[in-house]
Amino acid sequence: MQWRLKAQELANDIEKDMAYGNFDETLEKYRQQPHQDKDTQPVTTAELFEQFIESRRQQGSGEYNLHEVYGTMLRYLQRFGTIDSSDRALEFIGKLKMGELRATAAKPISDRTLNKYTSLLRRFSQWAIAYDHWETDHFRKCETVRTEKNRASREAFTDEERDLILSSLQLSRYYRHYYGYVSAMFFLGLRPSELIGLQWKRIDLEGRSLVIAESLSRGEDGKTSSAARKRKETKTGEVATLPLGSEQLQIFAYQRKKYPDAKPDSLVFPSPEGLAIDDHNFCNRSWHGILREARIDLYRPPYAARHTFATWAKRNGMPDEQTAYWMGHKTTRMVTEHYGHLDKQPMVPRFTWAPLDD
Prior knowledge:
By secondary structure, this protein is mostly helical. It has two domains: 35-146, DNA polymerase, domain 1 (Orthogonal Bundle); 154-326, hpI Integrase, Chain A (Orthogonal Bundle). The chain contains 13 helices and five strands. Strands 1-2-5 form a three-stranded antiparallel β-sheet, with no helix packed on it. It has a two-stranded antiparallel ribbon with strand order 3-4. Strand 1 (203-204) and strand 2 form a beta hairpin. Helix 1 (2-19) packs across helix 5 (111-130) and helix 8 packs antiparallel against helix 10. It is globular and about 65 Å long.
């Protein structure tokens, strides 16, 4: 497992360098560097975690997540000290849970936050083992907390809830502008940064296809404003061409009607001010209101719309391999942990959708 992980990360680095013209023909860049003598130059857990953060950045992880989640964990590790055993790892998790590593007054964290941190530390531990920094998984005894509330918050919307949200948007006084954007959230299944940054030049209405080649990701330190966002390659570094069904084409036709003078580089789903949507503000200011108007009792974040797409597609017969390719994954993790061939000609199921008369 360790050698497979290292081999896959190396292959990803080489593919990315070839795509951007940075391939090292001498291969020196890709050779494994000899480890420093740990006895003479010990690496602290926090320093090792910094290396882990950089590896995730190279693999395309978003800056917001790296700064807000990974960065917070780094500060906790710096305050705690070295973790070199399962007992120390359990002690660290205990202090996390009670909020004793906060810079301000200690305050226990929620089970949901603790689960997020525990999952992150497990990934870090597996990375450290794979790259020969650790010999054992220090966090193997650290279990996530299972609660009904946590499970519910990650649920996909039901078909009825999805349709209720969209029908409510049609009549909404305040949030009607987002009808096309939210429809695309549910029926395209793209990552938020890919959908926010989608440009008209990537859509071929006559050819009935959509190209996902880049994202408009959050800026440095997780800033979400339009000015702070930066165009980047997709999370996996790959370009995907997706065939569009007739109903998906209606969503784009509706947006084109709203913006008849849009240029090829124009955003397909701009904010009311004509800028890139600030997904943080959208979630805090609009999404809560949208769910409230639709009378959805159980809150789920906008990202749940992507999970809703996957659930809906699978229920309607789309194979896991096609769903994974459509959604930009390299694996069909829900059915297997191994990489495999992905069907690159997925056919999206039919659905009912009607444009608004603006």
